[in-house]
Amino acid sequence: MRIAKITATTVTTAALALGLAACGGAEAPAEPSAAASASASGPKYSGKELTFWRLGDSNPAAQKYTDELVAAFEQQTGAKVKVEWIPWPQVNDKFTAAAAGGTGPDVTEIGNDQVPLWQSQEALAPISDIVAAGDQAQIPKNLLGLETIDGETYAVPWGGGSRAVLYRADWFKDLKIEIPKTWDELVAAAKKIQEKKGKDVDGFAFNGGSDANHLLGSLAWTAGGEYAVKEGDKWVGKLTDPAFKTGFEQYTALVTDGLSSKSRLGQNTTEIRTRFANNKVGMYLTASWDLPGIDEDSKGKLKGDKLAFFPLPAKDGGEAQSFLGGNDIAVWGTAKEMDAAKDFVKLASGKEWGVKYATDGGLLPVYPEALAKLAEDPAQAPFAAAFAKAKAFPADPNWTEANETKAVLQNAARQVIEGKATADEALGKANTELENILNQS
Q1: 416-438: string of b/e by CB count within 10 Å (b at 16+)?
Q2: For 17-33, what is the mean pLDDT?
Q3: Which whole-number Å values give the CA distances from 226 to 46, 136, 311, 429, in the listed order?
Q4: CA nearest 364: which of 341, 332, 389?
Q5: How far apart are CA 233 and CA 235, in angstroms?
Q6: Comparing C-alpha atoms, which of 244, 160, 267, 268 is closest to residue 434?
Q7: Is it the case that residue 30 has pLDDT exceeding 70?
Q8: Please, are residues 320 and 314 in contact by the beta-carbon 8 Å criterion?
Q9: If phi over 0 gives left and psi between -120 and 50 gives alpha, with beta otherwise, what is residue 47?
Q10: What biological-process GO terms show up in the record (predicted)?
Q11: Which domains does the chain have, with CATH numbers?
């Protein structure tokens, strides 16, 4: 997921838009000390040079972090590190050319949902030994779902992102609505918003676009469901299991129960954001990166204490599971300096530099202690709570085809909502299609 585009400046702006100081309740991580991590054996990679790909734009915060990390590694090991910045629009072409030509960096930043694809192209080296010991062993296993394939780990989580419910805090105040703690309370809040603000307003917006599974997945996972599981060398679909069906029916009920209009079945988060900015949505699932766009689309009318977030509630209370977004760091499969590359990844993803990468970049740290501190900040708490339970889609390079190109679950939901199939019929057909896609070679 291309979370790295959300810079520290963006997140600070988002927090200020809520009338809060970004990371106000969290202690700033101490500046990592190169001397503290220096190798007792001295500069073991003198004369070696690594190439490190960083993705996105070299904004001041990202550049400062990278310069300090590189300086620490060079002092510790004697190696030199050449940093190349790859703008996000060029990443796919750059990776494709490197994988096809047997070239590429020694170390690269990578979106976590891209790990299965590039692992399938043999573009990433296994680094299970790194996550099995040291600081990295403290990273919760649920955060390694996209990085671990057939028992091997191919990237280390570096910084994460999650989603929560953005809502009209001013409407909640005017209508005397309490923050929903259960799914039934969320539904009741949505209905009250529609009753008072008009039938054309979505109380809670249904997302049926390319990012629909961020909402559906949260509901299905929380109910105990799975999209598919790997049994031997085959993916077995689980869409027909009762638990997945429970979440799926919650999802489709947003429309069939009238909380969101049937005329907008295909809208995605960007389209929902525009309607939200124009007073047509009371709540929807997103993250703080939508706030600058809402400010712009509303011509400055929606900001400050008019907006806030709360965690998507589970049916019976507590936080629902969130989709796991984020950025990783990995060793390229054809790294010329493999040992040095692994040591660089070990340093960068350790607790000191890993926490600093996340907090400096406006992301969520993957280490539990640092995430708990971030949860003390009211602006970040809903995302920290969601991220602590975050989960990934099936770690298969064909998932993108099922999710976006073929829109398997979106089509199943549409069939049910339009009355063309029952949930059992739609999920049965979708299950077969999902298995065929995930198991194609």
Answers
A1: bbeeebebeebbbbbbebbbebb
A2: 37
A3: 49, 27, 21, 16
A4: 389
A5: 7
A6: 244
A7: no
A8: yes
A9: left
A10: maltodextrin transmembrane transport; maltose transport
A11: 3-162+325-387 (3.40.190.10), 164-322+395-438 (3.40.190.10)
Mean pLDDT of 8-29: 33
**Helices then strands (H, E): number in the chain?**
18, 12
Helix, strand or coil for residue 373?
A: helix
Please choose, from the candidates 126, 148, 170, 181, the residue with its C-alpha nearest in 3D space to the C-alpha of residue 315: 181
Residue owning tokens 């520290």? 8
Q: In this predicted structure, what is the pLDDT of residue 280?
A: 98
Whole-number Å distance between alpha carbons of 317 and 108: 40
d(CA 158, CA 146): 13
How far does Cα 44 stand from its chain's mean position?
A: 37
Give the C-alpha distances (Å, rounded to integers) separating 155 from 74, 92, 178, 209: 22, 17, 41, 29
Q: Are 210 and 403 in contact (CB under 8 A)?
A: yes
pLDDT at 33 over 70: no
The amino acid present at 49, given as its one-letter code, is E
Is residue 339 helix, strand or coil?
A: helix
Cα-Cα-Cα-Cα torsion 217, 391, 58, 268, nearest 10 degrees, comes to 0
Write down how long the chain is. 441
CA–CA gap between residue 437 and residue 441 (Å, rounded): 9
CA dist 248 and 65 (Å) reads: 42
How many other CB atoms sit within 10 Å of the CB of residue 95? 23
How far apart are alpha carbons 270 and 290 in whole angstroms? Answer: 8
Q: Tokens for 235, please give them.
A: 């993916």
Residue whose entry in the numeric block shows the structure tokens 């692992």: 119
Element (H, E) at 91: helix 88-101
CA–CA distance, 253 with 246 (Å, rounded to integer): 11
Beta-carbon-side half-sphere exposure of residue 391 (alpha carbons within 13 Å): 22
The reported pLDDT for the residue numbered 42 is: 54
Strand 148-149 with 152-153, pairing = antiparallel
pLDDT of residue 379: 79
Strand partners, 283: 167
Write the CB contacts of 99 (distance below 8 Å, at least 6 apart in sequence): 118, 121, 122, 123, 333
Tell me the range of 21-25, 138-142, 344-348 where mean pLDDT is highest.
344-348
- How far, in Å, CA of 414 to CA of 221, rounded? 20
The position carrying tokens 């953005």 is: 166
